[in-house]
Amino acid sequence: MTAKAHEEARKLIALGDSLSQAEYAWLRAHLDECEDCRQHAETAQQMAQWMRAIPIAADRSLVRTTQMRVRARAEQLRHRRERLFLITFSCALVAISSAFSTAIVWKSFEWLGHWAQLPTPAWQAGFALFWIAPTLAASLLFLGHGTYLGSNGRTRE
Known about the structure:
about 160 residues
């Protein structure tokens, strides 16, 4: 037997009852041939039986504390799921409204450019400036303020 086969057998022994049929069949065949691994399996089985035989009791304060922490974590996960849904929904609405409004604003700038007899590059540049102006303004405000929001919601400088 190779060392790799022994290592694989020990891993499968550690998995216990969660083996597939093929893994179980391979392990059975290996244990029939290998005395060391068979001894290891028997020792592991005895240890598991001894561990199950030891009664484990937790005091009330530990149980209450654990329940409180589990409930708090469940609440955090619920809030996170709700926020993720709202963010996803908001992004979808923004994408849809941007798709529709871009075409409308483009046609409006085109009409305005022809009405004012502007060259095509001029009204297209005006459209591009109009479209990125809110982002530029917000960026300048954030840069001027010099702070950003940290992960805990408080501002840091």
